[in-house]
Queue: 2 jobs
Job 1
Amino acid sequence: MRIILGLLSALLGALAGWFALATLVIALSGPDRDGGIAMGAFFDIGPIGGVAGLIAGVWLFTRIGLVRNKALPQATGSSETAPRPGTRLSFPFAMTLLSVAAILCWWGWHEFIRSPYLSHGYMTLELQFRLPAGTALPDNTDDVLRIGARMTATVRRSLPRRR
């Protein structure tokens, strides 16, 4: 579990660093006409922030995420050294990390799969073919391919020829 939470901490740190540096560059540079500054900030400068965020995520995990157990009281007459106390995961750090990851996963699922802007939450591809005026619908579905080929030939004939 430590490895999974350490990796999750590093990935969330990289994500936060990437977006933070890209947003900072975009905010400091001001608006431009074609979005070149935003693309450069996201694809060229953002990865530098991602590496810094990855390092910060691992450092935070080792500093805050792992907590040392309390040492056992040492016997005063013994000449042996006391065993080093072990470490355990910090419950608040783990819960914060998992809740941030869950929120980001839900946001990604909602934005890319269930988005109300993408056909009201249902990922469907609706096609509509319009036949020329006066064309009757075919009785057989195999005839649709022939009509499509005939329409393509008609469109190609109506386009101007290249010289």
Job 2
Amino acid sequence: MRIGIGFSLFNFSVSRVTRQGFRALHLLILGLGVSAATAGLAESKSKQIPAPNLPWKDGEVLVVDNEGNHRMGLYDGGSVYFIYSDRLSTLTTPTTGWRLVCDKDAMTDKVNCMAIDEVARFGVYFQDGDEKPLGVKILEHDFPGESAMIRVGEAKPFTSDSDGWVFDQKLVEEIKEGGIVKTRIKVFPNKAYDDFATKRPVLDYGDAVLLMRHMQTNFGKISFDKPK
């Protein structure tokens, strides 16, 4: 059964139930797209205090500056994460980087999230309450009526629907295992192929999902205010 998904930035087409949630995520990705590297440059000029509540990891701090407070911590040795708001966080490791975007549905109050690897050009979408993700979205695919493709390592490639979605848990399992990710999209209007392959394996998916679940569970509860 085909599920419609509606997320205008990536030409989603999801069901009526989640359409508004995807539009909200679209705005968040555009408006809150702060890279971990850029934020890290400003840390030395900012004041750091212990995180006021609900840290993801021990030692998490609240970074107080004029640009807006955010939280920062270390995970698994050399990995660093930033939580910019209830809706956006990043996890940067020596090998890869993830952007995690969440939003609360205005009608259902469910918090839906997407784990995005922008370099590898895909995102994994999680609906609130579901143990497994709904599907994988091949980003930048925007050609009505045409499909895209994604491949992990030397495994068999997956073909998306016309909106760039792959609803197959086997693909998710392959992403978990890590590997070079290749995507193929078609460019409007001449149907030319645009192929892309990561230079390094896509890793740390499991860690990214753990941080995303922390945001999802504690949405609206994490404080970004300096304690009085």
